[in-house]
Amino acid sequence: MTGELVVRTCGLVKRFASAVTAVDGLDLSIAAGETFGLLGPNGAGKTTTLRMLLGLVRPTAGSIQVLGLPPGSPAALAKIGSMGEIAFYPFMSGRDNLRTVARRCKIGDGPVDAAMARVGLAERAADKVAGYSLGMRQRLGVAVALLKDPQLLILDEPSNGLDPAGQLDMRTLIGQLSAEGRTVVLSSHDMEEVEYLCGRVAVIGGGRVLAEGTAVELRGPDGRPLREVLLELTGGRTGGADSLRPRSGQRRLRPSGRWRRWPGARREDG
Question: What's the pLDDT band for 2 if we cut at 50, 70, 90?
Answer without folding.
Answer: low
